Fold this protein.
Amino acid sequence: MKSSIFLIFCFPVFFFSQIKVNGKILNKNHNPVEDAIVQILDNNGKTLSFQNSDSNGNFTFQVNKEPSYTLEVNKILFEPLKRNITISNDQKSVELEIILSEKINQVEEVKIIGQALALKQSGDTISYKTKYFTTDSEHNLKDILNKLPGFEVGNDGQIKVGGKKVDNLLVDGKEFFGDNHQLATENLDADMIDDIAVINHYSDNAKIKDLEPSDKTAINIGIKKEYKGKITGNTTLISAYEGHYKAGVNLFKFDKTTNISFIGNSNNINDEVITFDQYFQMIISSKNDFVSKRNVGNTDFIMPTSLISDDRMTKKYNNFGALNLTSYLSKKTKLNIYSIFNNVNQNKNILNNTLFFDQNSSYSTTENIKTKEQLFFNRTRANLDYLVSDNSLLTYSLAFDPYSGKKDIQIDQTFGNIENRIDEKVHDTPYTLSQQLSYTSKLSPTKLLALYIFNDINYQQNNFQLDNFPNVLNLDSPLLQDKKYNQETYGLLSTYTFKPKKLIYYIGLGYSLTQDSFLSSIENSQYSNNNKISRNFFNTEFSIYKRKGFFQFSLQNTLLYYTSLNRLLYLPKANVKFQLNQLSELNLSYQVKNDFANTNQTFTQPILDDYNRILQNNILDLGLPMRSHNFSVYLRYFNLFSGTILNLSFNYTKNEKSIITASQLLPQYTVISQVLNSTPTQNWFTNINLDKKVSFLKAKIKLNGSYSHSNSINIIDQIENPITSQNIILKASLMSVFKNGIFNYEIGVSKQKNISSYTNLNKKVSNDRTELFADFDGIISKHFKYYFRNHYNIYISEQKQHFLKTDFEIFYDYSKKWEYSVIGNDILNFNKTQIILSTLQNVTLQTSIIQRLPGYIGVKVKYNL
């Protein structure tokens, strides 16, 4: 801290002893050269500063008055240039004119910052030497990525580059737990990381990259040499106040042919390795891995509540294990397999005040809900590649996602003068299984043939028991219900790609058969459903791509002919891209998607959804298409050397038809029906991200903002009621980047506001959160590091609440092997705390008081292998 204050007071002295170096870069025709990389180096060859020339070829540096400097200029298609600069004592500025000579042969690779190689671009790959962007106070990969220009790691561990989500994460060129970024960002130590590369238009098979129209983005994590060829990693043990604990182990072995990784974690401090957002992204991203899912509009799955709950629990025990293996078994065979196991036992306590309403009446209930949950989740992925010949590849892919969730719920309900004790038991056992066999052959440098055979299974089973709840469907207690849903798809697809000149042409032909079945029954009653449907279709696609140059585009035309429905669907997709410079682009896209209702959404007999909701009379046309139109705009301005990164995006979706709810209010519970509505619904989303380097403060400004708006409809008492939902997120911060600093900081403010309203019923709910944060970290000495996280939250819902959440950790590196810490989490809230939220859904307006996990303080011991 003292050193930081000293620098602030000395800054005016430094400023007045500096001199400006101004210059202009021209080609041999004396035209300005834009985006040339200009560096100024001292007499030892160390880079002092660097930037891009502007649109007029100009650049400006401000440096201390020294006798001499070296100026270095690099630009693609031009010869590199170095010039010595001599400065006299009485000189106030230096004016330069630089003439660059064009190269005879084009070279795609550019090296930046001279011998230091802090940044390097080669084709579609941009590499960062991390030591030139970090402060040495980083603990893991997440801390490093958040220091790199253009990178952002969310609270869910998901990595974005230039505002775009990263599709694949590699370690030394080999797959690392698929798209489960958090396993890497939280568990790879900062000391292990040597460099990080961003790969645009990424393809798993490098030999067909030029012919495969890939929009994927990947990042590759380079590991330092001293961590290769041996078992490395660490073990961690935390013991804290009132029985809080965490035991973790990270084991890695990285070498030329094989990467093996194991990550294990057991804790009761709410250290979630997989979050809701990440699980949702895993489900969505599976569409890109299997051709059977490319034309699917929505994915029907059960969401594990353990991933939604966050810290809104009274107790939570997590047990987690993950294993990843990537190995070149031979010169022709490569295996990648990973499996993730997550087991959670948790208790939660919620006090609800619920208002039930319709057009003419209303009543309210008060409920104290206590829930015990046992949840198990597994995710397994496997890919086996066999190189049949130099130009032919055979691949088998498998995805298996089983889940088991048991909930035991006790509800003490007060309804007027009536008190009920309700017991509810739920057991969900869904799984999905996808398999694909593909053969890819490069017939010539410009021709590619691919064949796919695939099978998908989506199975869901739900057992439900309700005790002590009177008059539900006039049935006796206990009430037992069983539901089973099975969707199975078989198909094949053949594709032919050729590239005669600058354009890529793609032709696809395929066939797919899907069988849906849904069964439900309530024991000792006449209420049961048995629905089946079979859909089969032929699909053909013709697409054109242009992926290089200033103007790029793609036009995709897909036709689906459903023989079982005698229906032809046309699903176009178009994208236009302007490559403004190597790192900046403007994208515009339009796409039409289609979906159908499934058999588990269509039934006539009643089904219990929970203790106060009954579903019935879902009369949907299973053969009626639900088309949606999506339009998006994306702008990325990426100037690393001036320290400016700007991302703007806009996304609009219009649904021609959609499934909406129709609600009817009855005493103590509601009846919900789902109907297919032909009134268009729409939603739009806009987002802005700005990173700006502030050189004289040795800091950068980060601004993030987003706004989403959706218009939909529900039906209450047979009357359509428009619904409007809005979500606003704003965040601004200033982050210092003092190298090896005793004190670094990030200070700022964020605001989030959610608004939901029913237009006709004059019902409105608003949840508002404002957060002021001040995070500090630094290196006190060779052996001592620290961080403090201070977040002051103001929640406004039915009432105003204040929370100050303070986390800290003080590290002592006894040696390279041992690290000791004093650690605290939410240390001002050792007692159980609560949060108040309001929600508006169907015919209920609910205010909930939710218990949160308490804070703790303890000690941590870490051993590095």
